[in-house]
From TrEMBL:
GTP 1 binds at residues 10-17, 57-61, 119-122. The gene is der. GTPase that plays an essential role in the late steps of ribosome biogenesis. Residues 4-167, 176-351 form the EngA-type G domain. It holds the Pfam family KH_dom-like. Keywords: GTP-binding, Nucleotide-binding, Repeat, Ribosome biogenesis. It comes from the Bacteria. This is GTPase Der. Associates with the 50S ribosomal subunit. It comes from Anaerobacillus alkalilacustris. Belongs to the TRAFAC class TrmE-Era-EngA-EngB-Septin-like GTPase superfamily. EngA (Der) GTPase family.
Amino acid sequence: MSKPVVAIVGRPNVGKSTIFNRIVGERVSIVEDMPGVTRDRIYSSGEWLNKEFNLIDTGGIEISDEPLLTQMRQQAELAIQEADVIIFIVNGREGITNADEEVAKLLFRSKKPTVLGVNKIDNPEMQEQLYEFYSLGMGDPIAISGSHGLGLGDLLDEVLKHFPEMEEEEYDEDTIRVSLIGRPNVGKSSLVNALLGEERVIVSNIAGTTRDAIDTPFSVDDQKYVLIDTAGMRKRGKVYESTEKYSVLRALKAIERSDVVLVVLNAEEGIIEQDKKIAGYAHEAGRAVIVVVNKWDAIEKDDKTLQQFEQKIKDHFLFLSYAPILFVSAHSKQRLNTILPMVNTVAENHSLRVPTNVLNDLIMDSVAMNPTPTDKGRRLKINYATQVAIKPPTFVLFVNEPELLHFSYERFLENRIRATFEFTGTPIKIYPRKKN
Ligand code: GDP
Ligand code: GDP
């Protein structure tokens, strides 16, 4: 099930990224807590009135060095194509500009639901600046102040009204949804072709096409899969589609629709920052992950190469310590036949349910082995544990004081759970909840 997508468009400096950050909240994401790159984050999830959605800041996708009007047009086209609802931001202190009118025209013609936010209305006295924006023909303008956090609730109320009905689940429960993500040229399409070309693979010729992805359903023996297409695998040729950030965006959408994500690395090039970022999204989205090192044929090897590479991956992807690593070659077909069996295994682990009594015995044993943390004389007490969800397996601990569950103790419990149950390839989540 994919969440509705909301895109923010508007001229530079009207406050798009300020508003984006307000809406997605302060959550520091593990992949993006690097200094000085706020604008790096162009895609994140938000929530309003219990409705989740994905938000794109189109301003963060630098499309080309074209003149402003051309860039605005491309931005608007991207939003029209990718989003269910568009938030169009203008600057209430500057009034309407040509670029605003141009964007308004495009949005109007597209008939995409659009909500007009007039930003930088920092105090009630400035409300009258709103009225001129009626002439854009985009309905009632909503006064907001991104920097003061005003009016965003009204804006989001309006956005929510335009959400489409939730899409039906496209594939049945036992179909494993798989995507391959990674930088351009790591060999994703070669791997896909090689996988689909394997002997026992039966590719269904009805390509299930959703709004913006090309899916390839296939089966091996009795197991059904669907391959979710990502950027770079099929090049389509719009200007923005060749930009790096856009391809990340596509990858994120594919991740969201997947059960299992194959993070593809190029053995020849090792690991770079971008690999980490992409893999981090898969982890954060709670998907099962397999690291696939491709082009293993292309490098010189001795008896230590594999272990060294494995260690390098572990060092770089600390957050993915649960992910199995496969060394393959799309060209020589080396170990290609290990991929789908591994997909089956991690998919199974991703939806594993553990018996409550075994879980509770395990937690009590763990506590006896390593006493719970204390703070200012108060000690964490875990009364009861239960698994509340799968995909990924999610556990709730009922405790006396949730804030006493420190990260390190949570990590300890996670390791104990992993040592007892088979969770290879899947993240697991642990949440404390207050209950005496
Ligand atoms: P973007 O280029 O559209 O993403 O705009 P930014 O979010 O980077 O904001 C551009 C400038 O406008 C920054 O200096 C912000 O601090 C400022 N700004 C953003 N929102 C507001 C607002 O509500 N009121 C005022 N006065 N300034 C704002
Ligand atoms: P994508 O952009 O990630 O889809 O990558 P492609 O599948 O288009 O592959 C990029 C390049 O790497 C092409 O020239 C491929 O022939 C080459 N390539 C892909 N897989 C392998 C492999 O296993 N070994 C070697 N040596 N080259 C490969």
